[in-house]
Design goal:
Layout (H helix, E strand, L loop, with lengths): L1 H10 L4 H4 L8 E2 L7 E5 L5 E6 H10 L3 E6 L6 E5 L1 H18 L5 E6 L5 H16 L3 E7 L8 H14 L4 E10 L2 E8 L4
Parallel strand pairs: 2-5, 6-7
Antiparallel strand pairs: 1-4, 2-3, 4-5, 7-9, 8-9
């Protein structure tokens, strides 16, 4: 079957690339346009007027280009004569560029103990400040074990102390709150850094 398709395509040598069905999620192309009449825009951006789809397709094929439905919800639908392969390439290039420029925010986690020593506290605080300066959010958690669960106020004091230690570099996005055996707080980097 694939061989037959290739043979049919080779018979129309200059139309080879049109034999392969170009599928797109949002745009209808060439014979996939199911409207009776469309408003047609030329390849140079000029208005060609409202015409039947068959006539618009003839104009596109005469220019050796594709007829692409760019606005199917308009009344009547708007189609443009363009090189669809080039359009998709440029669109993918723009999306890639936009993706490259955006910064993804990661959530880093710092675990504290209920009876954390001063040096350990400062070390964890320095790690959190480094994460915040890199633009990442920080999730600070304390796990309560055994009898510690009866004293959540000690964990709350530790969390407040940690937030004050990092105050120059962050804002408290979500205040300390008990969730099961854990107390969790989220810190977000300050804007403008």
């Amino acid at each position: 079957m694939l061989f037959d398709l290739q043979k049919n395509c080779k018979s129309a040598a200059n139309e080879f690339w049109r034999c392969i069905n170009i599928s797109s999620k949002e745009l209808s192309v060439n014979e996939n346009i199911k409207f009776k009449e469309v408003r047609t825009i030329g390849s140079d951006g000029s208005q060609l007027g409202i015409m039947p789809v068959a006539k618009a397709l003839e104009a596109a094929y005469a220019a050796d280009l594709d007829l692409v439905c760019i606005s199917p919800n308009a009344e009547p639908p708007v189609c443009k004569i363009m090189d669809y392969g080039k359009y998709r390439f440029e669109q993918a290039k723009r999306e890639k560029e936009a993706k490259k420029n955006q910064k993804t925010v990661e959530i880093k986690e710092i675990r504290l103990g209920l009876s954390i020593d001063v040096h350990d506290f400062e070390t964890k605080g320095k790690h959190a400040i480094r994460f915040l300066d890199d633009g990442d959010k920080v999730k600070v958690s304390i796990r309560f074990r055994g009898r510690e669960l009866g004293h959540p106020e000690i964990g709350l004091d530790t969390m407040k102390r940690f937030a004050e230690y990092c105050a120059e570099h962050c804002t408290v996005e979500k205040a300390a709150k008990m969730e099961g055996r854990n107390m969790i707080m989220f810190l977000a980097p300050k804007t403008g850094k």
